[in-house]
C-alpha cells in the first residue's frame, strides 16, 4: 500500500497539473463561474414563488386567488426556464474548456514522456504507458465535470438555501447549516480513507494492461514455445489482483452510501419536526413546508450526486497519479544548460578513458580508449557481451557516461544538443523497427523534407525498390505494427534506405546485414560501399566476412580494446580475432568464399 505522504503528494501533483492547464483559459473559467452562480440563484429563488403559490391557495378563495396564483406561477416558471437556458450555455462553455485542456494535457504528457531515456522505455510496458497518458486527460474530464456541475453548484445552493431558511426562521437555517458541515466532514473523511484503495485498484488496472499488452505483442513467441497456458495464468493472476483491489474499493464505497443515507434521513425528519412546531406557533405558513421539502429534496439530490462525483474524482485522480509521477521523473539523458549545436566537418570520433555500467551494477566498458579518424571505416568485433553495441549507444547518448569523454571533431558530445548530435549520425540497428505507416513515410523518416523521387532513389540504392514496386499499393503500403508485415531482410533494407536518405557524416551499422540472405547481402554490401564514401563509419559485426575490408578492425573483450589493425595484421597476431576467424571459417564460411576474400 502506498504511503499516505506519497498519495497526498501525488494528488497535489495532479491537481497542480490540471489547474496549470486550466488557467490558460481564464475567460472560459470566469464565464463558467458566473453562469454557475446565476443557475443556482435561479434554482434557489424559484421555490419561493412556489411557496407563495401554495400560500395563496391555502388562504384565499378560488374567485379571488387567480391573479395572485397566475403571477406566482409565472415567476416560478420564469426562473425555471432561466436556469434551463443557462445550463445550455454552461454546457457550451464546459465543452469548450474541457476539450482544449484535455488536448493540452495529451500534448504535454506525450512531449515529456517521449523524451524519457532509452532505459525508461525498455524498463516499462509501452501499453501501460499509453493507457496512463490517455487516462490522464480523461480523468481531467471527470474532475472538471464534478467541479463545475456538482461541487461548485452544491456549495452555492447550500449557502442560498441556508440563507433563505434562516430568513424564514433562524433555527431552520442554523440547523441546516450544522447538518451540512457534519455531513461534509464525514464524507471527506470517508473519501480520504477510500483513496488508497482506489489508488491500488488503478495500479493493478495498469498492471493488467501491461501484462495483456506484453502477451499479445509476443503472441507468436508464446504460440511457438507452447506458452499459451503460461500467459493465461499470468494474465489470470493480474486480473485476480485487480479484482481484489476493486472489490475492496467498492465495499468501502458501499459503507459511504449507507452513512450518507442515514444522515439524510435524520435531517429530513428533524427539520420537518422543527417546522411543524414553528407552524403550531404561527411562525411558518403551509407554503413554508413546501419550501423546506423542496429545498431538502433538491439539496439531498445534489449532495448525493456531489458525493458520488467526489468519489469519482478521487478515483480519477488515483488513475492520474501514475502519469503525474512519470511527468516528474527527471529525464536521465537531456541537454545540459547552455548546450550548443554540434557541427561535424571531418567526423573524427574520440573515446577518452570511457567507463560505463548499466544499472544492474555490472561494468560494461572500462578504460575504453579509441580514436576514429574522419572518414575512417572502423569495425568493432568481439564475443557477445564485449560492449560493442554499448559503444554505439553511448555515441548516440542513449545513456550518459559514468566517466570519460566522447568527442566529435573536438566537441564534447555531452555539451552538444541531443538533436544536433543525432542528426549527425545515421544508425542502422540489428533489428530495425518500423512505424505502422506507409513505406514512403518510413523511408522519408531519414529526411522529412525529402521528395518522393529522393525517397525512391534511396530505396533503389538499398535494393528495396524492387520488392516495394511488386506490392499492390507500392510505397503507400502500410507495414503493420513494428513492421511486422515485412520480412527481417526487407525491414533491414528499409532501414538502410532511411540511412541513405539521411546522408549523415557519421554512419553506425550494428549488424546491418545480419537478417539478409546471401544474395541480398551482396546487393546491400554494394550499396553500403557507396554510402560509406566520405563518411566516418563504425560497423559492429559478428560475421567477420563483412568487415575484412575495413580500414581498421578493433577487437573488444570485457569492455576493453585488446587488439586492433587490419584483417591481415590481426590474423598474423593471433589472439581472439584469429580464434573467431577460425571458428567462422571452419564452421560457417564456405572455403571458396574465404579464398576469394582479400586476406
Folded structure, characterized:
This protein has 599 residues and is of the alpha/beta class. It has three domains: 4-326, Up-down Bundle (ABC transporter transmembrane region fold); 336-424 and 507-516 and 535-599, Rossmann fold; 431-503, P-loop containing nucleotide triphosphate hydrolases (Rossmann fold), CATH 3.40.50. It has helices at 4-22, 26-59, 62-113, 118-122, 126-168, 170-217, 219-224, 228-280, 286-326, 388-395, 418-423, 439-444, 452-461, 465-469, 488-502, 518-532, 567-573, 575-587, 591-596; strands at 349-357, 363-372, 377-381, 403-408, 411-412, 425-428, 506-510, 536-540, 552-557, 560-565. Strands 6-7-8-3-9-10 form a six-stranded mixed beta sheet, sandwiched between helices. A four-stranded antiparallel beta sheet has the order 2-1-4-5, with helices on one face. Strand 9 and strand 10 form a beta hairpin. Helix 6 runs antiparallel to helix 8, helix 8 (228-280) runs antiparallel to helix 9 (286-326) and helix 17 crosses helix 18. The radius of gyration is 36 Å and the shape is elongated.
Secondary structure layout:
Elements: H1 4-22, H2 26-59, H3 62-113, H4 118-122, H5 126-168, H6 170-217, H7 219-224, H8 228-280, H9 286-326, E1 349-357, E2 363-372, E3 377-381, H10 388-395, E4 403-408, E5 411-412, H11 418-423, E6 425-428, H12 439-444, H13 452-461, H14 465-469, H15 488-502, E7 506-510, H16 518-532, E8 536-540, E9 552-557, E10 560-565, H17 567-573, H18 575-587, H19 591-596
Parallel strand pairs: 3-8, 3-9, 6-7, 7-8
Antiparallel strand pairs: 1-2, 1-4, 4-5, 9-10
Helix pairs in contact: 1-3, 1-9, 2-3, 2-5, 2-9, 3-5, 5-6, 5-9, 6-8, 6-9, 8-9, 13-15, 15-16, 17-18
Amino acid at each position: 500500500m502506498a504511503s499516505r505522504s506519497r498519495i497526498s503528494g501525488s494528488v497535489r501533483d495532479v491537481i497542480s497539473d490540471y489547474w496549470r492547464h486550466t488557467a490558460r483559459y481564464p475567460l472560459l473559467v470566469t464565464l463558467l463561474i458566473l453562469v454557475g452562480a446565476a443557475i443556482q440563484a435561479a434554482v434557489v429563488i424559484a421555490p419561493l414563488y412556489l411557496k407563495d403559490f401554495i400560500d395563496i391557495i391555502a388562504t384565499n378563495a378560488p374567485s379571488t386567488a387567480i391573479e395572485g396564483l397566475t403571477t406566482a406561477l409565472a415567476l416560478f416558471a420564469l426562473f425555471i426556464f432561466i436556469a434551463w437556458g443557462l445550463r445550455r450555455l454552461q454546457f457550451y462553455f464546459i465543452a469548450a474548456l474541457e476539450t482544449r485542456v484535455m488536448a493540452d494535457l495529451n500534448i504535454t504528457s506525450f512531449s515529456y514522456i517521449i523524451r524519457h531515456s532509452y532505459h525508461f522505455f525498455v524498463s516499462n510496458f509501452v501499453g501501460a504507458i499509453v493507457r496512463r497518458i490517455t487516462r490522464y486527460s480523461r480523468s481531467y474530464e471527470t474532475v472538471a465535470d464534478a467541479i463545475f456541475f456538482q461541487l461548485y453548484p452544491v456549495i452555492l445552493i447550500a449557502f442560498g438555501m441556508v440563507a433563505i431558511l434562516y430568513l424564514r426562521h433562524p433555527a431552520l437555517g442554523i440547523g441546516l447549516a450544522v447538518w451540512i458541515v457534519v455531513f461534509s466532514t464525514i464524507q471527506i473523511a470517508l473519501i480520504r480513507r477510500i483513496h488508497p484503495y482506489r489508488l491500488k485498484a488503478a495500479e493493478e488496472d495498469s498492471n493488467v494492461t501491461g501484462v495483456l499488452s506484453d502477451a499479445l505483442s509476443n503472441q507468436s513467441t508464446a504460440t511457438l514455445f507452447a506458452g499459451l497456458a503460461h500467459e493465461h495464468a499470468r494474465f489470470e493472476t493480474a486480473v485476480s489482483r485487480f479484482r481484489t483491489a476493486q472489490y475492496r474499493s467498492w465495499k468501502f464505497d458501499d459503507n459511504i452510501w449507507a452513512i450518507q443515507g442515514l444522515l439524510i434521513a435524520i435531517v429530513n425528519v428533524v427539520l420537518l419536526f422543527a417546522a411543524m412546531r414553528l407552524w403550531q406557533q404561527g411562525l411558518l405558513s403551509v407554503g413554508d413546508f413546501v419550501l423546506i421539502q423542496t429545498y431538502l429534496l433538491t439539496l439531498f439530490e445534489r449532495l448525493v450526486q456531489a458525493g458520488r462525483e467526489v468519489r469519482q474524482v478521487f478515483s480519477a485522480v488515483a488513475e492520474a497519479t501514475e502519469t503525474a509521477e512519470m511527468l516528474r521523473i527527471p529525464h536521465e539523458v537531456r541537454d545540459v544548460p547552455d548546450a550548443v549545436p554540434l557541427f561535424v566537418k571531418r567526423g573524427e570520433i574520440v573515446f577518452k578513458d570511457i567507463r560505463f555500467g548499466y544499472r544492474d551494477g555490472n561494468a560494461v566498458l572500462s578504460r575504453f580508449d579509441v580514436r576514429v579518424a574522419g572518414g575512417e571505416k572502423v569495425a568493432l568485433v568481439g564475443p557477445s557481451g564485449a560492449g560493442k553495441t554499448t559503444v554505439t549507444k553511448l555515441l548516440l547518448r542513449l545513456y550518459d557516461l559514468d566517466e570519460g569523454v566522447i568527442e566529435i571533431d573536438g566537441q564534447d558530445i555531452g555539451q552538444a544538443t541531443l538533436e544536433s548530435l543525432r542528426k549527425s549520425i545515421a544508425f542502422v540497428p540489428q533489428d530495425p523497427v518500423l512505424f505502422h505507416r506507409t513505406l514512403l513515410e518510413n523511408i522519408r523518416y531519414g529526411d522529412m523534407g525529402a521528395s518522393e523521387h529522393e525517397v525512391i532513389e534511396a530505396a533503389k540504392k538499398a535494393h528495396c525498390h524492387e520488392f516495394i514496386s511488386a506490392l499492390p499499393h507500392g510505397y503507400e503500403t502500410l507495414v503493420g505494427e513494428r513492421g511486422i508485415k515485412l520480412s527481417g531482410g526487407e525491414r533491414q533494407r528499409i532501414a538502410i534506405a532511411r540511412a541513405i536518405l539521411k546522408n549523415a557524416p557519421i554512419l553506425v551499422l550494428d549488424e546491418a546485414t545480419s537478417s539478409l540472405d546471401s544474395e541480398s547481402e551482396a546487393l546491400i554490401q554494394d550499396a553500403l560501399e557507396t554510402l560509406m564514401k566520405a563518411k566516418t563509419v563504425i560497423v559492429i559485426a559478428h560475421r567477420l566476412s563483412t568487415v575484412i575490408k575495413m580500414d581498421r578492425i578493433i577487437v573488444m573483450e570485457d569492455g576493453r580494446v585488446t587488439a586492433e589493425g587490419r584483417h591481415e595484421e590481426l590474423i598474423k597476431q593471433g589472439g581472439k580475432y584469429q580464434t573467431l576467424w577460425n571458428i567462422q571459417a571452419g564452421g560457417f564460411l564456405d572455403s571458396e568464399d574465404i579464398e576469394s576474400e582479400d586476406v
